[in-house]
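User: Before I run my own analysis I want an independent prediction to cross-check against. Here's the chain; please return only the structure tokens and, at the end, one sentence I can use as a sanity check.
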Amino acid sequence: MTIKEAKHIIYAEPNAPFDHIAIATFTLASKHKTRQVKYADLLECMRRGRIPGKITVAAEAAAWALYRRTGRKRKSTVPYKDFDTSPESWERYLRRHKIKDE
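Assistant: Structure tokens:
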């Protein structure tokens, strides 16, 4: 899947099946494509892939990409204890630390 196709699924297909959202998210979250993908793209992947009360593979992939790209540290090494998959929380973090796309 190309970046263009992935962004189309995330932004222009409101009824896209979850597996399409997950594949699009993995495409956008790839560390090889960071220059073509904005933080806003990853946040939208997180929104589209989120199921309240659950961590999904799409939200998790978007969060991992954000952790990697921003250098945000976690306080715990326990899996998922403080792993943030909330797009609203990430938006606050990016604003508070004045982190903008490269």
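Sanity check: The chain has one domain: 3-96.
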